[in-house]
């Protein structure tokens, strides 16, 4: 039986960007950061405290998450607060969690 040919409606560049996006979700620390930011907006120190990590380690992971447009930030005086970039990020997290916890 001949398998049907599947035409992807997206170009190679988009496929590679999508693969890069999923690579970002492959790190447990980044997942933990995204999870706590799905609950509330936090500064680097608050994230570091909640995850028992250094500010430097958190800043490094936030840089990756910002580059992939998964988090956004706002400045309030000298403090920078981070949150999820949009509802799509929360949806990806929720869908993934639902998938891995289903029996």
Layout of strands and helices, then pairs:
Elements: H1 12-24, H2 28-39, E1 42-43, H3 44-51, H4 55-67, E2 71-76, E3 79-84, H5 87-101
Antiparallel strand pairs: 1-3, 2-3
Organism: Blautia aquisgranensis
Domain HTH arsR-type: 10-103
InterPro entries: ArsR-like_HTH (IPR011991), ArsR_HTH (IPR018334), HTH_ArsR_DNA-bd_dom (IPR001845), Metal_resp_trans_reg (IPR051011), WH-like_DNA-bd_sf (IPR036388), WH_DNA-bd_sf (IPR036390)
Account of the 3D structure:
The chain is elongated, with a radius of gyration of 17 Å. The protein is α+β, with helices and mostly antiparallel strands. It contains five helices and three strands. The mean pLDDT is 93. A three-stranded antiparallel sheet has the order 1-3-2. A hairpin with a 2-residue loop joins strand 2 (71-76) and strand 3 (79-84).
């Amino acid at each position: 039986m001949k398998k049907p040919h599947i035409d992807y409606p997206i170009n190679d560049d988009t496929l590679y960007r999508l693969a890069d996006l999923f690579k970002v979700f492959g790190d447990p620390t980044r997942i933990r950061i995204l999870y706590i930011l799905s609950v509330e907006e936090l500064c680097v120190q608050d994230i570091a405290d909640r995850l028992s990590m250094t500010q430097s380690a958190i800043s490094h992971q936030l840089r990756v998450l910002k580059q992939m447009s998964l988090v956004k930030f706002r400045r309030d005086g000298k403090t920078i607060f981070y949150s999820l970039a949009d509802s799509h990020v929360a949806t990806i997290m929720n869908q993934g969690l639902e998938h891995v916890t289903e029996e």
